[in-house]
Every structure is written in C-alpha cells, then in structure tokens.
Write a structure and sequence with these properties.
Length: about 350
C-alpha cells in the first residue's frame, strides 16, 4: 500500500524514515557496506577512469566538485542523468567539476566493456571513475544509488542528495558554492531539461509497484505453486491468478542468488501497477541473442510498447542492460504483464517501474 503524507506528517518523519519510504516506493536504491575506520572521501581505489586521467580530490581544490554515484542499470539514477549532464555542460567553465562514480550492483556491471558502452550510449562526457571494489563508495560511507555530493573549494562536503528529485535545490546549491569562488559572470538561471525515453520522470501519482529482484537473495512475491527452489532447474507453472506485485514462472528455470536463467523457452508473469515496466536482463552466453514477446492483459502492447519492443510485443535481448518493455498510454490500472522467451539461455535479474 502506498501512503501519502501531509506536510505536517512529513515534518515528523526522521531522515532515515524518509529514505526508507523512498527506497520502498522506488525513488532510491540502497546497499550497506562496511566502512568502519575508513579515511575521508577519496577517489583512491578506482579500478579505471573514463574520459580523463586518474584524478584526486586534492588536485581539485579550488573547484566545486559534484560526485555522482551511479550504476548503469539503475532506473532511479537514469532519471537524474539529464540534470547531471546539463549541470556539467553549463557550469564546467565556471568552476564545477562533475565526477561520476560507477559502483556496480550486479556482477555483469563490473565488466569494463559494459560500463564503457553505457557511458558512450548515454552521452556522458564528464569524468567517470569505475569503482568495482567499492573503495570510493566506502570512503564516502555511501549507501545509495543515486547519491549526489557537493564538495566546496576547500574540500568539504557541503550538500548531499539521495534519490531522485529536488533538482532546483541541488542546482541552487551548486550556484551557491560557485559564488564562493567568484560571482563574476555566473548565470543564475536554472537548466531546462526535456527528458524522454528511459530518462523521463516516473508517473509518481500512479506508481504502486516497487523494484523487485528475481534472484532468491532478494526476491519477494514469487507465486508459482512449486515454490521457490534455489539453484536447481525446476519446471514451474503459473498460479490461477496473481495478486498485485506478485509474479510467477512457467517452463524450466533455475533460480540463482542474483538471477534466474532458462534452459528452454519459458515465461515470466507479473501483476503490476505503473506506467512503465523495465527488466534488467541479458544473454547468458556471450554474443548470443534471445528473442522474446511481451503481452499486457493477454494482448500485444500496441501503442503502449516500450523502447525495446515493437507494437506487436516482439524484441531481442542482445546486451546485459535494462530494457524498457512497456510505457502505457491512458489510465494506469492493475495490469498483468507477460514476457515469453522464445529462446533459451537468458539471464533475468530485476524488475523496475516508473
């Protein structure tokens, strides 16, 4: 159930509780890591750098530094990217340095070629540190995707923002720190963005489904009558009906800790309530492709198809990434989604919504 809070109720929520509700309702992703006895924020430990030589915070003294923690399959971060991109372009000649820190969530996101391809595909021109070992993440004692930190010209963290939203406030904080360096020729107008595709803002008013993982480590709502059986191939069947935010499998699948995989054609059924549905997946064999078809309420999606699906519901899995399968037109209601994999050897990780 999604609760809406009045202003006065919200004022009594602690910051921790607010972050918890943001996590539950899909605005933020969180991971806890051990960070006891760690030194202060640092870029030490980056496994690679993209778009730049290796950088240090010490050499960036005198600049305002925006540090953006992200991982390329995170829809919550993806919807913040238009603002990060535009802030970098607008303020880079006025003293702002944007550093993206790509800290992977899934095992395939550790691959340099996957992260590098996403950086090119998403038109990210500012420096990016690849943080495969969570060294930078831990040095900031960070726990969230996305997470934004603003560091002033003296090297002090002056502002932080976890999750989506508050773009006006974040930009005003950027301007405030830049004015401390020099007020000359600083534009006080706010950037204007017109996000589309994956980057379009979620339909928060009608969103009733939150992120759900399919691996047994974090899966919830699994409803096939056989029950969830770990690390063993099972021929699953769908139930007679699904409750909202529950899902089921049909066909031969193996449910592993992080993902599910098939060795024969099979399907996933999910009952959701959102405008958009995304699925993080990829071919289980390098260079392979897997054909699929999606249906909503038993019908081809038509005009409600996503970026990676045609109007008849057909698409192909070629890369390890997030696929947009449905972007509904018209009223948003409880909807039964089905994806039929027409080939074997697909790996599926996570549903996200918008």
């Amino acid at each position: 159930m999604v609760r809406k809070f009045t202003y006065m109720q919200t004022m009594f929520l602690t910051a921790t509780t607010i972050l918890l509700f943001a996590t539950i309702f899909g605005a933020i992703e969180t991971r806890q890591r051990r960070s006891e006895n760690k030194p202060g924020p640092s870029f030490n430990g980056a496994t690679s750098w993209v778009n730049t030589r290796p950088l240090t915070l010490a050499e960036l003294r005198g600049k305002v530094v925006l540090v953006d923690f992200w991982t390329y399959t995170c829809i919550n971060w993806r919807r913040t990217l238009p603002y990060i991109r535009e802030w970098s372009k607008k303020y880079k000649n006025q003293g702002l340095v944007v550093i993206g820190v790509h800290t992977p969530e899934f095992s395939f996101e550790h691959k340099f070629e996957n992260a590098g391809h996403s950086i090119n595909d998403m038109d990210i021109e500012y420096p990016v540190a690849l943080d495969n070992d969570y060294a930078i993440w831990d040095s900031f004692q960070n726990q969230f995707w996305p997470a934004l930190y603003l560091i002033d010209a003296n090297g002090q963290i002056r502002y932080q923002k976890f999750g989506e939203g508050d773009y006006t406030e974040s930009e005003l904080q950027i301007q405030k720190l830049l004015k401390e360096i020099s007020a000359r020729n600083l534009s006080t107008e706010l950037v204007t963005v017109k996000p589309k595709g994956f980057e379009a803002a979620a339909d928060w008013e009608h969103l009733r489904s939150s992120e759900n993982y399919l691996g047994y480590n974090r899966a919830i709502g699994f409803s096939s009558p056989e029950g969830l059986i770990a690390d063993k191939k099972v021929v699953y069947s769908p139930p007679n009906g699904l409750a909202l935010n529950h899902w089921a499998l049909a066909g031969g699948w193996t449910i592993e800790k992080e993902r599910i995989t098939n060795t024969e054609p099979g399907k996933i059924i999910y009952r959701f309530h959102a405008r958009d549905i995304h699925l993080i997946m990829g071919p289980a064999k390098a260079g392979a492709s897997v054909r699929f078809r999606v249906l909503i309420n038993g019908q081809a999606p038509g005009r409600s198809h996503g970026l990676d699906v045609n109007s008849n519901g057909y698409g192909i899995v070629k890369d390890q990434r997030m696929y947009q399968l449905i972007r509904q037109e018209g009223p948003v209601t409880d909807t039964e989604f089905q994806i039929d994999f027409l080939d074997s050897h697909v790996e599926v990780y996570d549903f996200t919504f918008g």
